[in-house]
Design brief:
By secondary structure, the protein is mainly beta. A hairpin with a 2-residue loop joins strand 9 and strand 10. The protein is 9% helix and 57% strand. It has one domain. An 8-stranded antiparallel β-barrel has the order 1-2-3-7-8-9-10-11. The chain has a two-stranded antiparallel ribbon with strand order 4-5.
Length: 202
């Protein structure tokens, strides 16, 4: 896998609020299924209850999958009336990247499974170690993450049932969202990516 492919596979793991599975949640460690957007008023401070994101990249050599289902994330996000936001999160646990051996060769260069793991670790925020196994023609790397509390701020906009956050100096990301009373659900709107972050209003 080239570094660019690693970036694609791990892009969903680098977000501040859409990683991990919050402790105490019914969905902890569980499904990465999208929720249906319904819109609503997001203004206020929300605490992460649970979150899981999975990306599936279809390539000619096979299917590359990354998942944050083994991570636990704690923190909050605040949406202000002036369309600014701030989020603070910390993550621990494991993320995974799985790739067919056929995808380890690109433009005449072949990586070992361990080299894939080294690339994945270098591109995963808070990664401290990686263990890879190659079995059944698939290289699977488990990345151990211990990410200290970090803060992100920027602006947001709403359009129908979607919310777009633009971190200061970074690329914008759009999610489908739904507010149900004191619960806020957000699911990634990117193609080939599924998951849901559940928040509870403070």
């Amino acid at each position: 896998m080239t570094p660019s492919r690693v970036v694609l596979a791990l892009a969903v793991l680098g977000g501040t609020s859409q990683v991990g599975c919050g402790s105490g949640s019914p969905s902890a460690g569980g499904s990465c299924t999208n929720v249906t957007g319904c819109g609503g008023d997001v203004v206020g401070t929300w605490t992460i209850v649970s979150s899981c994101v999975q990306a599936t990249i279809m390539m000619s050599c096979g299917q590359v999958i990354s998942s944050s289902a083994g991570l636990t994330t704690t923190g909050t996000i605040t949406y202000n009336t002036d369309l600014t936001y701030m989020t603070t999160t910390a993550s621990t646990g494991t993320a995974t990247v799985s790739e067919p051996d056929a995808c380890l060769t690109f433009q005449g260069t072949t990586l070992t499974c361990d080299q894939l793991g080294a690339s994945a670790q270098a591109m995963t925020p808070g990664a401290v170690s990686t263990a890879c196994t190659d079995s059944g023609g698939v290289c699977k790397c488990t990345i151990t993450v211990s990410q200290a509390s970090s803060t992100e701020s920027g602006t947001y906009s709403l359009s129908g049932n979607t919310i777009t956050r633009t971190p200061t100096g970074k690329t914008a990301a759009t999610s489908n969202y739904c507010v149900r009373g004191t619960e806020l659900d957000e699911s990634p709107a990117q193609a080939n990516t599924s998951g849901v972050t559940v928040y509870s209003k403070q």
